[in-house]
Specification:
binds uridine 5'-triphosphate, 30% helix, two-stranded antiparallel ribbon, single chain, 10 helices, 292 residues, alpha/beta, 2 domains, 9-stranded mixed beta sheet, Spore Coat Polysaccharide Biosynthesis Protein SpsA, Chain A
């Protein structure tokens, strides 16, 4: 039996401006744009719950209150649906134990590292997970469950990584890999945000899921700015390497970058094709369109 503190809290930074999806995101948060019939944020929250996470902490900003409303009880909607004999089960994924959904504000979007730091009082002195909901991770088990299983083994800090073509690494955070613990678990000796291709230490990129020790909050406290003039989470994590165990889990599954438009369309198509209730119809439509 492991003696490690279980991962019960997860931070979801959702305070970004979503400029790549304007004008859609002028009035609707990017996290509520639907992939088929579920908002992006729902997939990430489902993944968290599957991994045993109980407390969801949103780091929000102006114009994002609809995310909290989405996870609240919609009394009038439910009363009307009930009267009309509609299936209420469709709302089950939006339900939460009272008190288990929390939010804090990041008043100015100063970067991902700053967003995480805004959650420090709720995180307290516990290891915690981070989900970037733009990155849709589809796996069985889900990405965070794979990470929690690895955490049971090695503890410390963990990030999920993906292997991508070398020439694309300069858009991402990249790891310098150390000793391999297993086929899917590698020690991390360094992290670098958006390196030029020639200086990239590997083709393994950090992909939107983290398990971190609370000490990262003290590193973020310094508010040092990195790439793009933003307070970068990658820089803070890099400073922890050497002081605490740090590993990367290669995610077994599919990742869709829904922060950009083509990734969003790809995810929509991939998930629609897999659906029992519409897959065949969507395939026929796609084939017809491609034949034109
Ligand atoms: P992105 O870099 O995708 O930024 O942030 P964005 O603002 O959401 O989208 P674009 O680039 O303008 O289209 C990655 C994640 O970090 C959060 C975002 O909400 C997203 O989940 N984030 C980023 C914050 O919460 N605060 C920040 O200051 C920056």
């Amino acid at each position: 039996m492991s003696q490690r503190k279980p991962i019960k809290k997860a931070v979801f930074p959702v305070a970004g401006l979503g400029t790549r999806f304007l004008p859609a995101t002028k009035a609707v948060p990017k996290e509520l744009l639907p992939i088929v019939d579920r908002p992006l944020i729902q997939y990430a929250v489902d993944e968290a719950r599957e991994a045993g996470i109980e407390q969801i902490i949103f780091v929000t900003g102006r114009g994002k209150t609809a995310i909290e409303d989405y996870f609240d009880l919609a009394f009038e909607l439910e009363a009307t649906m009930d009267q009309r004999g509609k299936d209420m089960g469709v709302l089950d994924p939006t339900r939460a134990t009272p008190g288990d959904i929390m939010s804090v504000r990041q008043q100015v979007p100063l970067g991902l590292g700053h967003a995480i730091w805004c959650a420090r009082s709720i995180v307290g002195d516990e290891p915690f997970a981070i989900f970037l909901p733009d990155e849709l991770m589809i796996g069985a088990p889900g990405c965070m469950k794979q990470m929690v299983d690895a955490y049971e083994e090695v503890g410390g800090n963990l990030i999920s990584v993906l292997e991508i073509p070398e020439e694309e690494v300069s858009s991402y955070g990249v790891i310098a890999p150390g000793k391999e613990v297993s086929d899917t678990l590698t020690e991390v000796t360094g992290l670098v945000e958006k390196p030029p291709v020639a200086q990239a230490p590997s083709n393994k990129i950090i992909s939107g899921r983290y398990i971190l020790q609370p000490e990262v909050m003290r590193v973020l406290e310094d508010q040092e700015k990195g790439a793009g003039g933003e307070i970068q989470l990658t820089d803070a994590m890099a400073k922890m390497i050497g002081t605490q165990p740090f590993h990367a889990v290669t995610f077994a599954g599919n990742r869709y970058d829904c922060g950009n438009k083509t990734g969003f369309v790809e995810a929509t198509l991939a998930l629609a094709l897999e659906r029992e209730d519409m897959g065949a119809e969507v395939r026929a439509i796609a084939e017809r369109l491609l034949a034109q």
